[in-house]
Amino acid sequence: MVGFPVLSMPVCLQNLTVRYGSKAALCMVSAQLEPSQWVLCTGNSGSGKSTLADVICGTLPAKAIVEGSITTSGHRVAKIWQEPSATFSPYRTITEQIRDVLRATGQLPSLAQSLLDQVGLAAHASSFPRQLSSGQIQRAAIARALATQPDLLVADEATASLDGETERDIVELLNGLRHAHGFGILWLSHLPAAVLPYATEHWHIEQGSLQRVAGAKPSVGPSLAPGSVLDRPASELLLEAKHLSKAYGSLVFEGISLRLYQGRTLALIGRSGSGKSTLARLLAGHEEADSGAVHRHAPVQLILPDTYRALNPHWKVGEAVAEALRIQGISSAIRQQRAKEMLNRLALDDIDLERPVSTLSGGQRRRLLVARALLCEAKILIFDEATNGLDAELRTSFLALLRKLQQELGLAYLWITHDYTSLPAFADEVVTLIHGSLQEMDYGANLPA
Fold first, then answer.
1. Which runs of consecutive H residues, i.e. helices, occur in 39-163?
2. Which terminus, N or C, of the chain has the lesser number of Cβ atoms within 10 Å?
3. pTM attached to this predicted model
Protein backbone atom coordinates (compact mmCIF):
# COMPACT_ATOMS: atom_id res chain seq x y z
CA MET A 1 0.00 0.00 0.00
CA VAL A 2 1.19 3.49 -0.84
CA GLY A 3 1.72 5.41 2.42
CA PHE A 4 2.44 9.05 3.00
CA PRO A 5 3.29 11.35 5.90
CA VAL A 6 0.59 13.63 7.24
CA LEU A 7 1.12 16.94 9.04
CA SER A 8 0.01 17.22 12.64
CA MET A 9 -1.07 20.88 12.56
CA PRO A 10 -4.81 21.68 12.38
CA VAL A 11 -6.45 23.88 9.75
CA CYS A 12 -7.58 26.99 11.65
CA LEU A 13 -10.30 29.47 10.72
CA GLN A 14 -10.51 32.62 12.82
CA ASN A 15 -13.39 35.12 12.44
CA LEU A 16 -13.49 34.30 8.75
CA THR A 17 -15.90 36.33 6.61
CA VAL A 18 -16.24 36.00 2.83
CA ARG A 19 -18.18 38.61 0.89
CA TYR A 20 -19.27 39.01 -2.70
CA GLY A 21 -19.99 42.71 -2.91
CA SER A 22 -22.35 43.48 -0.03
CA LYS A 23 -23.48 39.85 0.37
CA ALA A 24 -21.72 37.71 3.00
CA ALA A 25 -21.40 34.05 1.99
CA LEU A 26 -19.63 33.24 5.29
CA CYS A 27 -19.91 35.32 8.44
CA MET A 28 -17.41 35.29 11.34
CA VAL A 29 -16.60 31.58 11.10
CA SER A 30 -14.15 30.22 13.67
CA ALA A 31 -13.27 26.52 13.69
CA GLN A 32 -10.44 23.97 13.60
CA LEU A 33 -10.04 20.83 11.53
CA GLU A 34 -7.80 18.52 13.52
CA PRO A 35 -5.61 15.91 11.79
CA SER A 36 -7.43 12.63 11.05
CA GLN A 37 -10.86 14.10 11.94
CA TRP A 38 -13.94 13.38 9.84
CA VAL A 39 -15.96 16.61 9.98
CA LEU A 40 -19.49 16.49 8.59
CA CYS A 41 -20.73 19.90 7.43
CA THR A 42 -24.43 20.20 6.59
CA GLY A 43 -26.57 23.05 5.33
CA ASN A 44 -29.08 23.91 2.61
CA SER A 45 -28.09 25.02 -0.88
CA GLY A 46 -26.70 28.55 -0.71
CA SER A 47 -25.90 28.31 3.00
CA GLY A 48 -22.14 28.72 2.44
CA LYS A 49 -20.85 25.11 2.43
CA SER A 50 -19.14 25.36 -0.95
CA THR A 51 -17.66 28.75 -0.06
CA LEU A 52 -16.12 27.14 3.02
CA ALA A 53 -14.67 24.42 0.79
CA ASP A 54 -13.26 27.02 -1.60
CA VAL A 55 -11.63 28.90 1.27
CA ILE A 56 -9.88 25.78 2.53
CA CYS A 57 -8.90 24.60 -0.95
CA GLY A 58 -7.67 28.07 -1.97
CA THR A 59 -10.08 28.23 -4.91
CA LEU A 60 -12.12 31.32 -4.06
CA PRO A 61 -12.84 33.50 -7.11
CA ALA A 62 -10.81 36.69 -7.38
CA LYS A 63 -13.85 38.90 -6.71
CA ALA A 64 -14.34 37.41 -3.22
CA ILE A 65 -13.51 39.72 -0.31
CA VAL A 66 -11.97 37.82 2.62
CA GLU A 67 -11.75 39.08 6.18
CA GLY A 68 -10.35 37.25 9.18
CA SER A 69 -7.72 34.52 8.87
CA ILE A 70 -7.21 30.93 7.78
CA THR A 71 -4.10 28.87 8.53
CA THR A 72 -3.47 26.11 6.00
CA SER A 73 0.22 26.74 5.47
CA GLY A 74 2.02 23.54 4.50
CA HIS A 75 -1.15 21.48 4.28
CA ARG A 76 -1.90 19.41 1.21
CA VAL A 77 -5.60 19.62 0.41
CA ALA A 78 -7.36 17.46 -2.19
CA LYS A 79 -10.99 17.66 -3.29
CA ILE A 80 -13.56 15.29 -4.76
CA TRP A 81 -16.78 16.51 -6.36
CA GLN A 82 -20.36 15.36 -6.82
CA GLU A 83 -19.84 14.87 -10.58
CA PRO A 84 -16.28 13.54 -10.87
CA SER A 85 -16.74 12.57 -14.52
CA ALA A 86 -16.67 16.29 -15.35
CA THR A 87 -13.15 16.53 -13.87
CA PHE A 88 -11.66 13.72 -15.98
CA SER A 89 -10.67 13.95 -19.63
CA PRO A 90 -12.82 11.52 -21.65
CA TYR A 91 -9.92 10.84 -24.04
CA ARG A 92 -7.39 9.29 -21.66
CA THR A 93 -7.53 6.32 -19.30
CA ILE A 94 -7.93 6.86 -15.57
CA THR A 95 -4.44 5.41 -15.00
CA GLU A 96 -2.87 7.98 -17.32
CA GLN A 97 -4.64 10.80 -15.50
CA ILE A 98 -3.56 9.55 -12.07
CA ARG A 99 0.01 9.30 -13.37
CA ASP A 100 -0.18 12.98 -14.34
CA VAL A 101 -0.82 13.88 -10.68
CA LEU A 102 1.98 11.61 -9.47
CA ARG A 103 4.46 13.24 -11.87
CA ALA A 104 3.32 16.73 -10.87
CA THR A 105 3.97 15.91 -7.20
CA GLY A 106 7.39 14.35 -7.85
CA GLN A 107 6.33 10.73 -7.34
CA LEU A 108 6.75 7.59 -9.41
CA PRO A 109 4.03 7.20 -12.08
CA SER A 110 4.12 3.44 -11.45
CA LEU A 111 2.35 4.06 -8.10
CA ALA A 112 -0.92 4.58 -10.03
CA GLN A 113 -1.69 0.86 -10.01
CA SER A 114 -1.30 0.65 -6.24
CA LEU A 115 -3.69 3.58 -5.78
CA LEU A 116 -6.28 1.92 -8.01
CA ASP A 117 -5.86 -1.29 -5.99
CA GLN A 118 -6.64 0.62 -2.80
CA VAL A 119 -9.94 1.94 -4.15
CA GLY A 120 -11.04 -1.36 -5.70
CA LEU A 121 -10.39 -0.50 -9.35
CA ALA A 122 -7.48 -2.84 -10.08
CA ALA A 123 -9.41 -4.45 -12.93
CA HIS A 124 -10.24 -1.09 -14.54
CA ALA A 125 -6.77 0.41 -14.91
CA SER A 126 -7.07 0.66 -18.69
CA SER A 127 -10.64 2.02 -18.65
CA PHE A 128 -11.70 5.42 -19.91
CA PRO A 129 -13.97 7.50 -17.64
CA ARG A 130 -16.98 6.97 -19.90
CA GLN A 131 -16.67 3.19 -19.37
CA LEU A 132 -17.10 3.45 -15.60
CA SER A 133 -20.27 3.63 -13.53
CA SER A 134 -20.94 6.57 -11.21
CA GLY A 135 -19.57 4.66 -8.24
CA GLN A 136 -16.48 3.56 -10.13
CA ILE A 137 -15.64 7.03 -11.43
CA GLN A 138 -15.95 8.36 -7.87
CA ARG A 139 -13.46 5.68 -6.76
CA ALA A 140 -11.13 6.83 -9.55
CA ALA A 141 -11.45 10.41 -8.26
CA ILE A 142 -10.51 9.22 -4.77
CA ALA A 143 -7.43 7.45 -6.16
CA ARG A 144 -6.42 10.63 -7.97
CA ALA A 145 -6.89 12.63 -4.76
CA LEU A 146 -4.72 10.14 -2.85
CA ALA A 147 -1.98 10.73 -5.42
CA THR A 148 -1.50 14.20 -3.93
CA GLN A 149 -0.74 12.68 -0.50
CA PRO A 150 -3.36 14.90 1.17
CA ASP A 151 -3.47 15.99 4.77
CA LEU A 152 -7.12 16.91 4.24
CA LEU A 153 -9.68 15.57 1.77
CA VAL A 154 -12.61 17.89 1.00
CA ALA A 155 -15.69 16.12 -0.35
CA ASP A 156 -18.43 18.39 -1.73
CA GLU A 157 -21.67 16.39 -2.13
CA ALA A 158 -19.43 13.51 -3.21
CA THR A 159 -22.10 10.80 -3.04
CA ALA A 160 -25.20 12.78 -4.03
CA SER A 161 -25.38 11.03 -7.42
CA LEU A 162 -25.04 7.50 -6.01
CA ASP A 163 -27.61 4.98 -4.89
CA GLY A 164 -27.78 4.15 -1.19
CA GLU A 165 -25.78 0.94 -1.30
CA THR A 166 -23.01 2.41 -3.46
CA GLU A 167 -22.92 5.49 -1.22
CA ARG A 168 -22.36 3.29 1.83
CA ASP A 169 -19.57 1.45 -0.01
CA ILE A 170 -17.81 4.72 -0.84
CA VAL A 171 -18.15 6.06 2.70
CA GLU A 172 -16.75 2.82 4.17
CA LEU A 173 -13.87 2.93 1.67
CA LEU A 174 -12.99 6.50 2.67
CA ASN A 175 -13.16 5.65 6.34
CA GLY A 176 -10.70 2.78 5.83
CA LEU A 177 -8.36 4.98 3.81
CA ARG A 178 -8.57 7.73 6.44
CA HIS A 179 -7.40 5.32 9.13
CA ALA A 180 -4.73 3.80 6.87
CA HIS A 181 -3.21 7.12 5.79
CA GLY A 182 -4.17 9.46 8.64
CA PHE A 183 -5.67 12.27 6.59
CA GLY A 184 -8.71 14.28 7.71
CA ILE A 185 -11.99 14.62 5.82
CA LEU A 186 -14.31 17.61 5.49
CA TRP A 187 -17.59 16.19 4.19
CA LEU A 188 -20.06 18.75 2.82
CA SER A 189 -23.56 17.41 2.32
CA HIS A 190 -27.26 17.95 2.82
CA LEU A 191 -27.89 14.16 2.87
CA PRO A 192 -25.63 13.10 5.73
CA ALA A 193 -27.17 9.82 6.95
CA ALA A 194 -24.45 7.55 5.54
CA VAL A 195 -21.65 9.63 7.09
CA LEU A 196 -23.09 10.22 10.57
CA PRO A 197 -21.72 6.93 12.01
CA TYR A 198 -18.17 7.90 11.00
CA ALA A 199 -18.15 11.65 11.67
CA THR A 200 -16.07 12.78 14.64
CA GLU A 201 -17.61 16.26 14.54
CA HIS A 202 -20.73 17.78 12.98
CA TRP A 203 -20.94 21.37 11.77
CA HIS A 204 -24.03 23.06 10.38
CA ILE A 205 -23.99 26.22 8.26
CA GLU A 206 -27.02 28.46 7.98
CA GLN A 207 -26.91 31.82 6.19
CA GLY A 208 -23.13 31.84 6.39
CA SER A 209 -22.88 31.16 10.12
CA LEU A 210 -21.33 27.96 11.44
CA GLN A 211 -22.60 26.08 14.48
CA ARG A 212 -21.49 22.82 16.05
CA VAL A 213 -24.14 20.12 16.35
CA ALA A 214 -24.03 17.72 19.30
CA GLY A 215 -25.94 14.46 19.14
CA ALA A 216 -28.69 15.66 16.81
CA LYS A 217 -29.47 14.27 13.39
CA PRO A 218 -30.26 17.00 10.86
CA SER A 219 -33.73 17.19 9.47
CA VAL A 220 -34.32 15.75 6.00
CA GLY A 221 -36.72 18.62 5.28
CA PRO A 222 -40.32 18.64 4.08
CA SER A 223 -41.79 15.75 2.16
CA LEU A 224 -43.76 16.01 -1.06
CA ALA A 225 -47.42 16.17 -0.13
CA PRO A 226 -49.40 13.23 -1.51
CA GLY A 227 -52.08 14.14 -3.98
CA SER A 228 -54.07 12.37 -6.66
CA VAL A 229 -50.95 11.11 -8.46
CA LEU A 230 -51.65 7.43 -7.87
CA ASP A 231 -55.28 7.76 -8.95
CA ARG A 232 -54.65 9.10 -12.44
CA PRO A 233 -56.51 7.16 -15.11
CA ALA A 234 -54.68 5.38 -17.91
CA SER A 235 -54.10 7.71 -20.84
CA GLU A 236 -52.47 7.96 -24.26
CA LEU A 237 -49.40 5.81 -24.86
CA LEU A 238 -46.48 8.11 -25.77
CA LEU A 239 -43.53 5.68 -25.81
CA GLU A 240 -43.22 1.91 -25.98
CA ALA A 241 -40.02 -0.12 -25.80
CA LYS A 242 -40.26 -3.76 -26.88
CA HIS A 243 -37.74 -6.48 -26.05
CA LEU A 244 -34.66 -4.22 -25.97
CA SER A 245 -31.32 -6.00 -25.79
CA LYS A 246 -27.94 -4.33 -25.52
CA ALA A 247 -24.41 -5.48 -24.77
CA TYR A 248 -22.35 -2.60 -23.35
CA GLY A 249 -19.01 -3.73 -21.97
CA SER A 250 -19.84 -6.09 -19.13
CA LEU A 251 -23.43 -4.80 -19.02
CA VAL A 252 -26.04 -6.89 -20.82
CA PHE A 253 -29.73 -6.07 -21.24
CA GLU A 254 -32.10 -8.83 -22.23
CA GLY A 255 -35.65 -8.31 -23.43
CA ILE A 256 -36.49 -5.03 -21.68
CA SER A 257 -39.99 -3.71 -22.35
CA LEU A 258 -41.77 -0.68 -20.87
CA ARG A 259 -44.42 1.94 -21.64
CA LEU A 260 -44.72 5.65 -20.86
CA TYR A 261 -48.19 7.24 -20.75
CA GLN A 262 -49.37 10.83 -21.02
CA GLY A 263 -49.68 12.47 -17.62
CA ARG A 264 -47.99 9.62 -15.74
CA THR A 265 -44.61 8.93 -14.14
CA LEU A 266 -42.66 5.68 -14.30
CA ALA A 267 -39.80 5.60 -11.77
CA LEU A 268 -36.72 3.50 -12.51
CA ILE A 269 -34.42 2.53 -9.67
CA GLY A 270 -31.35 0.32 -9.42
CA ARG A 271 -27.78 0.27 -8.20
CA SER A 272 -25.09 2.46 -9.72
CA GLY A 273 -23.77 0.62 -12.77
CA SER A 274 -26.96 -1.39 -13.29
CA GLY A 275 -27.56 0.31 -16.65
CA LYS A 276 -30.23 2.92 -15.87
CA SER A 277 -28.47 5.69 -17.80
CA THR A 278 -27.76 3.38 -20.73
CA LEU A 279 -31.45 2.49 -20.89
CA ALA A 280 -32.32 6.20 -20.78
CA ARG A 281 -30.07 6.86 -23.78
CA LEU A 282 -31.69 4.00 -25.70
CA LEU A 283 -35.19 5.33 -25.02
CA ALA A 284 -34.19 8.89 -25.97
CA GLY A 285 -32.59 7.72 -29.21
CA HIS A 286 -29.05 8.71 -28.22
CA GLU A 287 -27.92 5.11 -28.72
CA GLU A 288 -29.25 2.13 -30.67
CA ALA A 289 -30.23 -1.18 -29.12
CA ASP A 290 -28.69 -4.38 -30.46
CA SER A 291 -32.21 -5.76 -30.90
CA GLY A 292 -35.76 -4.78 -30.10
CA ALA A 293 -37.44 -1.47 -30.88
CA VAL A 294 -38.48 1.85 -29.33
CA HIS A 295 -41.69 3.41 -30.67
CA ARG A 296 -41.91 7.12 -29.87
CA HIS A 297 -45.28 8.78 -30.45
CA ALA A 298 -44.14 12.21 -29.20
CA PRO A 299 -40.88 14.20 -28.94
CA VAL A 300 -38.46 13.00 -26.23
CA GLN A 301 -35.89 14.99 -24.25
CA LEU A 302 -33.30 13.56 -21.85
CA ILE A 303 -32.51 15.72 -18.79
CA LEU A 304 -28.92 14.88 -17.83
CA PRO A 305 -27.71 14.69 -14.22
CA ASP A 306 -24.64 16.89 -14.71
CA THR A 307 -25.94 20.39 -15.36
CA TYR A 308 -22.40 21.74 -15.76
CA ARG A 309 -21.86 19.63 -18.88
CA ALA A 310 -25.42 19.90 -20.16
CA LEU A 311 -25.25 23.71 -20.36
CA ASN A 312 -22.53 25.78 -22.00
CA PRO A 313 -21.20 27.90 -19.10
CA HIS A 314 -20.10 30.65 -21.51
CA TRP A 315 -23.60 31.22 -22.85
CA LYS A 316 -26.17 33.58 -21.45
CA VAL A 317 -29.44 32.25 -20.05
CA GLY A 318 -31.46 33.41 -23.06
CA GLU A 319 -29.07 31.70 -25.48
CA ALA A 320 -29.08 28.44 -23.55
CA VAL A 321 -32.82 28.07 -23.11
CA ALA A 322 -33.72 29.07 -26.69
CA GLU A 323 -30.97 27.16 -28.51
CA ALA A 324 -33.44 24.85 -30.27
CA LEU A 325 -35.47 27.83 -31.50
CA ARG A 326 -32.34 29.39 -32.98
CA ILE A 327 -31.55 26.15 -34.82
CA GLN A 328 -35.10 26.20 -36.23
CA GLY A 329 -34.44 29.69 -37.64
CA ILE A 330 -36.89 31.52 -35.39
CA SER A 331 -36.18 35.24 -35.09
CA SER A 332 -34.28 36.65 -32.12
CA ALA A 333 -37.24 38.70 -30.87
CA ILE A 334 -39.59 35.70 -30.83
CA ARG A 335 -36.89 33.52 -29.22
CA GLN A 336 -36.46 36.01 -26.41
CA GLN A 337 -40.21 36.30 -25.88
CA ARG A 338 -40.80 32.54 -25.77
CA ALA A 339 -37.75 31.99 -23.57
CA LYS A 340 -39.04 34.56 -21.06
CA GLU A 341 -42.49 32.99 -21.03
CA MET A 342 -41.04 29.53 -20.39
CA LEU A 343 -38.72 30.76 -17.66
CA ASN A 344 -41.72 32.37 -15.96
CA ARG A 345 -43.49 29.02 -16.08
CA LEU A 346 -40.50 27.35 -14.45
CA ALA A 347 -40.41 29.92 -11.61
CA LEU A 348 -37.31 31.56 -13.10
CA ASP A 349 -38.98 34.90 -13.82
CA ASP A 350 -36.38 36.76 -11.75
CA ILE A 351 -33.51 35.52 -13.96
CA ASP A 352 -32.10 38.03 -16.45
CA LEU A 353 -31.76 36.52 -19.95
CA GLU A 354 -28.36 38.24 -20.23
CA ARG A 355 -27.03 36.53 -17.11
CA PRO A 356 -24.22 33.97 -17.68
CA VAL A 357 -25.29 30.36 -17.14
CA SER A 358 -22.21 29.81 -14.96
CA THR A 359 -23.64 32.14 -12.27
CA LEU A 360 -26.83 30.10 -11.73
CA SER A 361 -27.33 27.81 -8.75
CA GLY A 362 -27.76 24.06 -9.14
CA GLY A 363 -31.53 24.30 -8.70
CA GLN A 364 -31.79 27.08 -11.28
CA ARG A 365 -29.78 25.09 -13.81
CA ARG A 366 -32.08 22.08 -13.31
CA ARG A 367 -35.15 24.17 -14.10
CA LEU A 368 -33.36 25.78 -17.05
CA LEU A 369 -32.84 22.31 -18.55
CA VAL A 370 -36.55 21.58 -18.18
CA ALA A 371 -37.43 24.94 -19.78
CA ARG A 372 -35.15 24.14 -22.72
CA ALA A 373 -36.74 20.70 -23.16
CA LEU A 374 -40.26 22.14 -23.14
CA LEU A 375 -39.31 24.79 -25.71
CA CYS A 376 -38.40 21.82 -27.93
CA GLU A 377 -42.07 20.83 -27.53
CA ALA A 378 -41.12 17.60 -25.76
CA LYS A 379 -43.98 15.55 -24.35
CA ILE A 380 -41.75 12.81 -22.91
CA LEU A 381 -39.11 13.85 -20.38
CA ILE A 382 -36.51 11.37 -19.16
CA PHE A 383 -34.93 12.61 -15.90
CA ASP A 384 -31.62 10.96 -14.97
CA GLU A 385 -30.99 11.65 -11.26
CA ALA A 386 -32.55 15.10 -11.62
CA THR A 387 -32.51 15.97 -7.91
CA ASN A 388 -28.80 15.31 -7.34
CA GLY A 389 -27.19 18.08 -5.33
CA LEU A 390 -30.48 19.67 -4.24
CA ASP A 391 -31.24 20.06 -0.56
CA ALA A 392 -34.52 18.72 0.81
CA GLU A 393 -36.45 21.99 0.44
CA LEU A 394 -35.33 22.60 -3.14
CA ARG A 395 -35.96 18.95 -4.03
CA THR A 396 -39.51 19.16 -2.72
CA SER A 397 -40.29 22.40 -4.59
CA PHE A 398 -38.75 21.04 -7.80
CA LEU A 399 -40.86 17.86 -7.66
CA ALA A 400 -44.00 19.90 -6.97
CA LEU A 401 -43.22 22.08 -10.00
CA LEU A 402 -42.72 19.01 -12.21
CA ARG A 403 -45.98 17.50 -11.03
CA LYS A 404 -47.81 20.76 -11.84
CA LEU A 405 -46.28 20.90 -15.33
CA GLN A 406 -47.21 17.28 -15.93
CA GLN A 407 -50.83 17.91 -15.02
CA GLU A 408 -51.04 21.07 -17.14
CA LEU A 409 -49.22 19.78 -20.23
CA GLY A 410 -49.94 16.05 -20.15
CA LEU A 411 -46.26 15.12 -19.97
CA ALA A 412 -44.91 11.58 -19.55
CA TYR A 413 -41.96 11.19 -17.18
CA LEU A 414 -39.37 8.46 -16.82
CA TRP A 415 -37.86 9.24 -13.42
CA ILE A 416 -34.46 7.63 -12.82
CA THR A 417 -33.44 8.00 -9.21
CA HIS A 418 -31.89 6.55 -6.10
CA ASP A 419 -33.89 8.92 -3.86
CA TYR A 420 -36.77 6.68 -2.84
CA THR A 421 -38.35 9.01 -0.28
CA SER A 422 -40.47 10.95 -2.79
CA LEU A 423 -41.64 8.04 -4.92
CA PRO A 424 -44.95 7.22 -3.18
CA ALA A 425 -46.16 10.79 -3.80
CA PHE A 426 -44.51 11.35 -7.19
CA ALA A 427 -44.50 8.08 -9.16
CA ASP A 428 -47.39 6.07 -10.56
CA GLU A 429 -45.29 2.94 -10.96
CA VAL A 430 -41.81 1.84 -9.90
CA VAL A 431 -39.56 -0.66 -11.65
CA THR A 432 -36.05 -1.73 -10.74
CA LEU A 433 -33.24 -2.71 -13.08
CA ILE A 434 -31.48 -5.83 -11.77
CA HIS A 435 -29.03 -8.00 -13.70
CA GLY A 436 -30.15 -6.55 -17.03
CA SER A 437 -33.90 -7.02 -16.57
CA LEU A 438 -36.78 -4.92 -15.24
CA GLN A 439 -38.86 -5.95 -12.24
CA GLU A 440 -41.96 -4.21 -10.94
CA MET A 441 -41.95 -3.11 -7.31
CA ASP A 442 -44.58 -2.50 -4.67
CA TYR A 443 -43.15 0.83 -3.55
CA GLY A 444 -45.66 1.10 -0.72
CA ALA A 445 -43.84 -1.67 1.13
CA ASN A 446 -40.74 -2.93 -0.61
CA LEU A 447 -38.55 0.03 -1.55
CA PRO A 448 -34.90 -0.39 -0.53
CA ALA A 449 -33.90 1.31 2.71
1. 49-57, 94-104, 112-118, 134-146
2. C
3. 0.65
